[in-house]
Every structure is written in structure tokens, then in C-alpha cells.
Amino acid sequence: MGNILFFFLALTLMPAFSATLDVAMQKYEAAQASYEQAKDQLLAKQQALTKAQGALQRAKVDLDAKQQQLADALATFKIAQAYQEKNPWHSISRERKAYRVAWRAHKTAQQTVRQQQQEVTTAQNQVNQHQNIVQRVAERVNSAAGQVAAARFAKIKKEFAEGRTVEVAVTYSCGGNETFNQCKASALKRVLAKAAREGAAVYVQSLSKATYNGSWRLEENITSKVTGKIGQYQVLVEYFTRTPGIHIKIRAKVQGQVPENLQVGLSPPLTDGTVPKVSVIARTEKRSPKSFEPEVVSIPAGCFMMGSPKSEKDRDSDEGPLHRVCVKAFKMGKYEITTTEYAAFLNARRPSTADRKKWVATKAEYSSSNHLIERNGQFQAETGYERYPVNNVSWYGAVAYLQWLSQQTGKNYRLPTEAEWEYAARGGTQTRYWWGDEDPVCQKGARNGAKFYGCSAKETEAVGSYQANQYGLYDVHGNLWEWTCSGWSNPYNGSEKKCLLSGASARVFRGGSWDFDADDVRAASRYRDEPGNQSDDVGFRACEVQVK
User: Which end of the chain is more exposed for a tag (fewer CB within 10 A), N or C?
Assistant: First the structure.
């Protein structure tokens, strides 16, 4: 059966799993239950901390009041003492008593503040401890979810490798009041449910119709998917009509050969703890014979939690609220657009001087970390920097390039939305960076290598110098900030899922750059600028989408 689906993520990072699918599911459900319990305990500790902080604040306010009362009582007592020195017969016992009462109240308030401070410290330590527990349990959930995926995959791959057919059959007798279409829908629903229990996805090719002996048999086209399952199944649907009722038998069959490069993996669970879908991720597409076409990778449709949790290290206030966003499938440039690619656009388009200056600055106009040069009206990359990303390009300049690229290729290119960019950059993860939570390093061979402030050379690197993420995208953390087509909003209000096609409002760029710190190249980090501005730390990459 053609068009075998490819499933990819980091299988090499997973241990070899021998557990059956049922055992793996039991482990996952147990881990998930522990995760929910740990989250509840963390919430209780956070509430206790909030309560202790409130009590401490009230105690401090009371201490300030008692301190003022003590100061007032002391001043009154000193005045009374001075008066008594001149009038020995005058009694100051009332003032002395008032001072002592204020002093004791002040000492008591001080002690209360110290006690409340200790309670806050204890509560904070407990919150930190439970946050670590939640993190460890979440890692166990990830591991268990990976075992589920691996077990499902192993089952399907074994079936393919053995070259045999796995049949899921259901016979359903319809009621006398059901029409044939109603009966068909009910029977199909049952076979899909049974296929799901077997760990099977249903993916159907076209079949044919035939009529036999007055009653009839139909082999019909059906297309359906079972969420979260792995595999490619052919469904042969047989309908038999018999008076007075309708009897339907449906068989789901696995057929085909195992491709040598068949792979599978799993994204970490979302913050709601659900087992993530196994993504269908296509291989990098072959580069077009046209040298100006960017190399793209396919990004599957899916949902993720956009932004950062309040607990994330180095989080900025404009990264929230954390919210679920779903995106459609699209293709994205494997690399940032290079100086060579942008020079080809300028040479072909031959823009006016005003337009060119509005779009991008050349090395003569802005020399720092800029490698686009102009000689006798022709543009080219500086020698030795042909694979460096184009920078000093405005949002207008990025849009102009992608419009030209669309016209030349007949494809539909644009900048990604902010949501598409973050979804693609995360590569199916929910961590600070696509590789995890650890900070990046400057080594090119390192898994968490990236170009950011602190690396020795104070400029960009050639595209693809560091490792790609799970989707095959390079330099999503560091090197250059990348323009998106979305307008800026803080907090998120839905504009992150839309393209702002015109106007002078600020546009978002993402990813960090060579002259920003490690915390600014996190997946959730955001920045914005006016669409006409140019900077030596901002570039862009292409996004290819289907024309509606």
C-alpha cells in the first residue's frame, strides 16, 4: 500500500522497551496519577505560602504601627521627664507606664514578624521541594508516554515486518428503523473503536464497488483517523443486505512493507498531562533546481502550550498567559534566509533606491556584522560569508522578498505567525529550549549549542552551524531574531495566531540573536520592533503554506 506514513522524533534517545502495550499503558496511567497528585500537593503548598506571605505582610504593618506608637510614647515620656526635673512634685508614672506598654508591644510585634518570616521561609522551601517533585514525576510521565509510543510502534512494525495481515472485524445488525446510511455509520464507529483498542490507526485507500446476485456488496472509500495511534491500515468494508434487517461486516487490515528508515518518537506531554500525539513528520524536501528557493521542512499540524509557565527560569512578564494553541500543517525554511538568497532577490527585482533602503542596509551603510555588499548596482554576499544569514532587513524587506519568491515559484510564501514560529521552534517540546531546560553553550558540536551573547565572535554564524531541532530547523535559538507576521500584544490576545499584513504597528520577532543573552533565546522569549526598523541582529526565514 503506497504512501507509507513516516513517524519521527528522537527514538535514539529512548531506552529499548520490551513492555507490551497494555503494560506500558498501565505504567503511564500510574505515572499520570502520581503527577496529578504531585500537582495537587504543590498547589496546596503554594496556597500555604501565599497565606504565610499575607500573614507576614500584616505583621510588618502591625510592627510599623507599634514602632510609631513606641516613638510617640518615648517622646511623651521624655517631655514628662524634662518637666519633672523642674517640678519634682509632678508624677510621670502614667507616661512611664505608657512607654513600657508600647515597648513591650513593639517587642511582641518584632517577635511575630520573625516568626512569620520563618514560616514564609519554610513554606517557600516546601514549594521548591514540591516543584522538584513535580518535575521528577513529569519526567516519569514522559518516560512512560515514550514507552506507550514505543510499544505501539513495535507492534505495528512487527506486523509490517512479518508481512501478515491483522484483521479487526465487527458485524453489526441494524434495527428495522435504521436507514442503510445510519446502519453503516454505526458499524463503522464500532470498528474504529475496536481498532483503537488494538492500537491501530485507520488510514484508507480507495476501493471499488461491485454487485452480486440481487443483494449487493460494497467496497467503499472511507477515510478516518484514531487520535494518538500509530500505523497505516487499509479498511475493507463489506455490506450485506438481508431482509428484514441490514447486516454489515467491516474488516480493518494492516498491509505493506516496513521502510528501512521508518522511525518513531514522541513529544513530551502537554501541561495537562495528556499523552501527546505521535507526529507525522515528512523528510526534508529536495531542493528545487531554482537556486533561490529555500530548503524547507514539513511541520505537522498539532497543538501546544504557547508561552511560558510562571515557574520557568528567566521568564519575562510578556510571555503569558500560558495557553493552548493549535496550528495547521505548513512548511518552514530549514535555515534563515541568507545574504546570497537576498542578493538574488535584489538583483532580480531591481528596486528603487527608496525601496531598497526601506528594505535592507548594505555593508557600506551598516558595517557591523553585515555581509551584503553592492558593487556597480549589483548585490552579492561578501566573500566567505555566502552562507551567513541576511540581517539589517526590515519587516517590509522580509515581506517584499517573500512576495517575490511566491511570484517566481508559484508557491505561497509568507512570514510565520508568532504561534507557528514557537510551535515549530519547540520541535514538539515544552521546555525552555528544544533540547531541554539547560542553558545553551557556544560549542557547535554540542546538542545545546547556539549563537548568543558570550560567544567569542561578535557576529552571526553561517546558517546550519549548530544542530537542528526535532523538526530539522536550524538556528531557532540564537544567531538572529526572526521576524514574524504577527502584531505585538501583551498579554496574548489571539493576534499571535494571525498575520498583520499592513500598517505601522509593531511586529513580533522571535528566537534571540548573537548579541542577546541565553535567557533571551528561549523558545518563549519575545521581542518587537517597528516594521520599518533594521538591525544587525534581526533576520527572517520563509514559511510555505497552502493557498486557500
Answer: C
- Give the side-chain half-sphere CA count within 13 A for 286: 2
Distances in whole angstroms, Cα of residue 449 to Cα of each of 17, 337, 467, 476:
30, 20, 7, 11
Q: 14 near 265, Cβ under 8 Å?
A: yes
How far is the C-alpha of 484 from the C-alpha of 398, rounded, in Å? 9
Answer yes or no: are the C-beta atoms of 200 and 231 closer than 8 Å: yes
Inform me whether the pLDDT recorded for 450 exceeds 70: yes
Q: Give me the amino acid identity at 364.
A: A
What would the 3-class secondary structure string for 216-236 be? EEECCCCCCCCCCCECCEEEE
CA 547 → CA 309, 406, 413, 414, distances in Å?
Answer: 35, 11, 9, 11
CB 253 within 8 A of CB 236: yes
Give the tens place of pLDDT for each residue, 70-109: 888 888 888 888 888 888 888 888 888 888 888 888 888 8
58: amino acid identity, one letter: R
d(CA 422, CA 424): 5
- Among candidate residues 325, 342, 327, the one with its CA nearest the CA of residue 542: 342
Predicted TM-score (pTM) of the model is 0.52
Q: Please list the residues that pair with 496 across neighbouring strands.
A: none
380-418: burial string, b at 16+ Cβ within 10 Å, e else: bbeeebebbbbbbbbbbbbbbbbebbbebeebebbbbbb
What is the rounded CA–CA span in Å between residue 93 and residue 81? Answer: 10
Cβ proximity of 335 and 475 under 8 Å:
yes
Count H helices and E strands in the chain, helices first. Answer: 7, 17
Q: What is the residue whose three cell numbers read 506571605? A: 53
Tell me how far apart the alpha carbons of residues 442 and 470 are, in angstroms, rounded to a whole number.
20
Task: Return the number of other C-beta atoms located less than 10 Å from residue 191's C-beta.
Answer: 25
Which amino acid makes up residue 363?
A: K
Half-sphere exposure of 383 (CA within 13 A, CB side): 1
DSSP annotation of 237 reads E
Cis amide bond preceding 269, omega within 30: no
Give yes or no for a contact between 389 and 479, defined as CB atoms under 8 angstroms apart.
yes
Directed axis angle between helix 93-161 and helix 21-86, to 10°?
Answer: 170
pLDDT digits (tens, 9 = 90+) for 175-205: 555 555 565 566 556 655 554 454 443 332 2
Question: Quick check: 369 and 389 in contact, CB under 8 A?
Answer: no
Query: C-alpha 230: how far from its chain's center?
Result: 22
Please report, for residues 12, 125, 401, 423, 523, the alpha-carbon distance to residue 325 in angstroms, rounded to integers and kept in the order given: 29, 33, 28, 9, 15
Rounded to 5 degrees, what are φ and ψ at 427?
60, 35
